[in-house]
Amino acid sequence: MSKMMFNQCIEKYIKENYIGTDNTCNGKCTKCGECCSIVLPLDQEDANRIQEYVIENRIFPQKHMRIMTNKWQCPYYNGNKEKGCSIYKARPKICRYYQCNKTSVSINEIEMMRGCIPVDMWAFAEAVEKEMKKHGINQENGKTIKQSI
To answer: Could you tell me which residues are beta bridge partners of residue 77?
Structure first.
């Protein structure tokens, strides 16, 4: 099957089977977190950008949200409608392009995901947090503390 045929098959499938729920308010994101999945497609560029941003800004997983909501959401969604995503500036490509009010997905968006693999965002966040702790960056009582080594 040629590349064009493969892309056409995927596009046809998505157009015929795409079911979206519009959680926007007049087309604007409400930061509800419904799209903040625990498993997201990331490529190496996404992973590097997020890790660098998380360490530089001392961002820790939102463990309280996991307990409070009993939802399997991205560990960087903080549940605060004012802020929403704690890694917004470094968010993955999928998060940059996704809009819940869209009624279809373009072939360009499908192509953009090439080279991405599904990543458990909690496992990713815990690995980055472990690396931060190795360098003396800890979180106590909701505050980030840099310990001298």
So the answer is: 85
Distance CA 1, CA 41 (A): 24
84: left (phi over 0), alpha (psi -120 to 50) or beta: left
What does the mean pLDDT of the chain come to?
75
Domain boundaries, the chain: 33-136
pLDDT over threshold 80, residue 105: no
Q: Average pLDDT, stretch 41-62? A: 92
- Residue 19's alpha-carbon distances to 7, 10, 12, 94, 112, in angstroms, are 19, 15, 13, 17, 20
By three-state DSSP, how is residue 136 classified? coil
CB crowding 89-122: b at 16 or more within 10 Å, else e: ebbbbbbeebeeeeeebeeebeebeeebeebebb
pLDDT score for 99: 72
Confidence check: pLDDT of 12 > 50: yes
